[in-house]
Amino acid sequence: MSNHSAIDFIKTNIADNVGIVSNPSGLEKGTHLSNGIVLTEDIPMGHKLALEDLQQGDRVIRYGQIIGFTKTTITKGSWLNELNIEMPQPPELKDITYKKSETISQPPLEGYTFQGYKNADGSVGTKNVLAITESVQCVAGIANYVTQKIKKELLPLYPNVDDVVSLGHSYGCGVAIDVAAALVPIRTIKHIAQNPNFGDETMIIGLGCEKLRPERLLRDGDRNVNDTILYLQDEAFSGFEEIIDGIMKMAEDHLKRLNQKRRVTCPASDLVVGMQCGGSDAFSGLTANPAAGFASDLIVRAGGTVMFSEVTEVRDAIHLLVPRAENEQVAEALKNEMAWYDDYLFKGLADRSANTTPGNKKGGLSNIVEKALGSVAKSGTSTIVDVVSPGEKIKKKGLNFVATPSSDFVCGTLQLAAGMNVHVFMTGRGTPYGLPMVPVIKVSSNSKLSNRWFDLIDFDAGPIAFGTKTIEEMGWALFHLILDVASGTKKIATDKIGLYNDLVLFNPGPLT
Ligand code: CA
User: Fold this and answer.
1) 243 plus 192 within the same structural domain
2) Quick one: 348 exposed, middle or buried, by C-beta within 10 A (0-12, 13-18, 19+)?
3) Separation of 371 CA from ligand 1 center, angstroms?
4) What are the beta bridge partners of residue 124?
């Protein structure tokens, strides 16, 4: 990468035969590039330009990896996109054997801390939130109504509590509750209620006749049920007002306990960071994801936990991830999650190519192979210590693969269940995505976006593309921002405005 600020294109890897147009306004036909190539057509920012003459069927190489094969003869200086690149087959899982890659071990990072809320189970919150979950969607109207009422009437009386949130969802009844696939949404709802930011004080509102029994959402044997679960059909309540009064009374007890919590100095090893991207462009894999990957490595070196996810966006890079597994069992678990998802997509008459969006393609990502190679950069270089199935909680510190769909809101929901206390979200095209449960740090892959969305983006990794900042510099800056946001001293954009998405469960099981 050149250090010159007016470079026109970027080569991601020395072996690449394509360059990425970095000029914010694109490049016009006839432009003479520094390497002597003349553009044969207009090419927009973020898109690929052929650096060599290519014959039909030649390999197209980015990140030093094959991202496809040319469908026709391509003259150097031409635009390569989804119309003239044939997508390769995904790596066959059965052909990938485990051999641990040599890792350059980096020294542990000592002395980095943040101010967090310690919980009895050892987890640490970055917010102090009263959460209200539900066993079935039938109660959502009441849950939303009472959440607003608690916020208005009770929350001001408990100044150490940051917020009250309703963990509404679409599950609970009208489902085949006993099939194996039902375990995914059920354990997701249960584990979200245990997120470190809720201080083990989550209330459960049930209806009474639903299939998902509220008791299934409790922690194993450590709770006073009467203090935590309230049934709307309880015969003690006569009418709406009495139901609301009952919930308000229960909320007061929980708020009193939460209000006793104070932020204390916690080591960076208490961070549990969920990495995700959405609305990616060709810069995502060049700037935002590598900077996030550098920050991931720093968190792991500090003894903390990082999760990366999005099965369809790692599937085509799985051959690069398997050698990073801690041991044979972790390698097998990684491949098993890929195989499960291949099968899930196959049954839906789809495959991983269904992942890429019109926006991805407009942003220069021709197919899922190119997107995946850029996407896994957010996992850094650390060893993968464990693999977590959808809806399960993380058990080990270090870098975890948490298997989820790539859909932003579904992935975020599952990362909440896994126990994340800070979310880092990379975007190239731009999304207002936010969650009220954990802070969501939004990282832009290009400065054009962060300039336009100056009040929606928290961190711009764009300068990496122009060589004015290195990946290392941006990675450290992001690491420090994560600590500040975790401490509550720096407020993120979506929290300032109050922009929040819904929780969206992953339910691979049938409805009835
Ligand atoms: Ca995503």
Assistant:
1) yes
2) exposed
3) 11
4) 118
Distance, CA 206 to ligand 1 centroid (Å)?
31
Give the domain extent around 142: 116-258
Going from the Cα of 424 to the center of ligand 1, the distance in angstroms, rounded, reads 11
Based on the fold, state whether residues 42 and 138 are members of the same structural domain: no
CB 388 within 8 A of CB 402: yes
* 18 located within any domain: yes
Of 432, 160, 382, 505, which is closest to residue 279 (Cα–Cα)?
Answer: 432
How many whole angstroms from 199 Cα to the centroid of ligand 1?
Answer: 27
Q: Does the pTM exceed 0.70?
A: yes
Instruction: Report yes or no: 98 and 328 within 8 Å, Cβ to Cβ.
Output: yes
Same domain, 242 and 278: no
Domain count, the chain: 3
CA dihedral 252, 257, 263, 265 (to 10 degrees): -160
> For the segment 458-499, what is each residue's pLDDT rounded down to a tens digit?
999 999 998 899 999 999 999 999 999 999 999 999 999 999
Helix 140-153 to helix 240-259 angle (10° resolution) is: 50
- Cα-flanking dihedrals φ and ψ of residue 229, to 5°? -110, 135
* C-alpha of residue 425 to centroid of ligand 1, in Å: 8
Q: Give the Å distance between the CA of 162 and the centre of ligand 1.
A: 27
Structure tokens at 499: 């922009």
- CA torsion, ordered 276, 278, 283, 289, to nearest 10 deg: 0
CA 431 / ligand 1 centre spacing (Å): 11
Give 144 Cα–ligand 1 centroid separation in angstroms: 27
Render the burial of 112-139: b for 16+ CB within 10 Å, e for the rest.
bbbbbbbbeeebbbbbbbbbbbbbbbbb
- The whole-angstrom separation of Cα 404 and Cα 309 is 6
Residue 237 lies in a domain: yes
CATH number of the domain to which 178 belongs: 3.40.50
Tokens representing 54 are 């290519």
Report the CATH number at residue 81: 2.30.130.110
Query: Is 293 found in the same domain as 187?
Result: no
Look at residue 161 and tell me whether its pLDDT is greater than 50. Answer: yes
User: Which is nearest to 478 in space by CA: 348, 205, 313, 294?
Assistant: 294
In a domain, 364, yes or no: yes
For position 222, what pLDDT does the model report? 61
Q: What is the pLDDT of residue 2?
A: 36
Q: Is the residue at 328 inside a domain? A: yes
C-alpha distances (whole Å) from 393 to each of 188, 405, 420 are 9, 16, 9
C-alpha distances in Å from residue 346, one per residue of 33, 339, 381, 389: 45, 10, 31, 19
